[in-house]
What does this fold into?
Amino acid sequence: MRILLVEDDKNLQSQLKQQLQKDNYSVDTADDGEIGLYQGTEYQYDAAIIDLGLPKIDGKELIKTLRKQGIGFPIIVLTARDRWQDKVDGLDAGADDYLTKPFHPQELQARLNALIRRSVGQASPVIENGPFLLDTASMQVKVDGLDVSLSSYEYKVFEYLMLHQGQVKSKTELTEHIYDQDFDLDSNVIEVFIRRLRKKLDPQGEYQFIETLRGQGYKLRKFDEIA
It folds into this structure.
């Protein structure tokens, strides 16, 4: 999952980026609302974390502008302010949730996970598809009840496909959602990860759960579609 973090406090931004990367997110950062607006409209994100007290364009106006432009990814507002009206203003601008500084990193992770799941119609942290189970909270993957160990990026690809079961996802889209904006989009690394996922999750080729559509991308088939 790829996150946009718009925070002008350099220390907090660095801490949050490190924590989010530790939690298996890819993170792009912006120091002010102007840069945040550019990134939010130019790149694909699964969610954004936006501080209200930003320079150039404040967080509330940034969120309003993104929503007016049809940008629908979930947004969590960060605020150091105590007044309830600031929280209401952030939500009224189009944010989906808020956290008041200081907060515990685990709370941010839990809220972020919940918002991303709900944005694709998945309420539970545990996603099941036939013999496959993925727990987005613990990042645990099981096949037929047995644990399967995936690398960080293998997990990211599988998680994204599980959250979008039955949908065709191009290599470019997959790359944009698991890497930050500096990654070379021409790389064939997605093909490598798909090959590894097939080998680790379906070594006997019993389920044929990831379908390749030539010239289009990949689709994680819903179990009831699998013969």
Q: What stands out?
A: The radius of gyration is 18 Å. The chain has a mean pLDDT of 91.
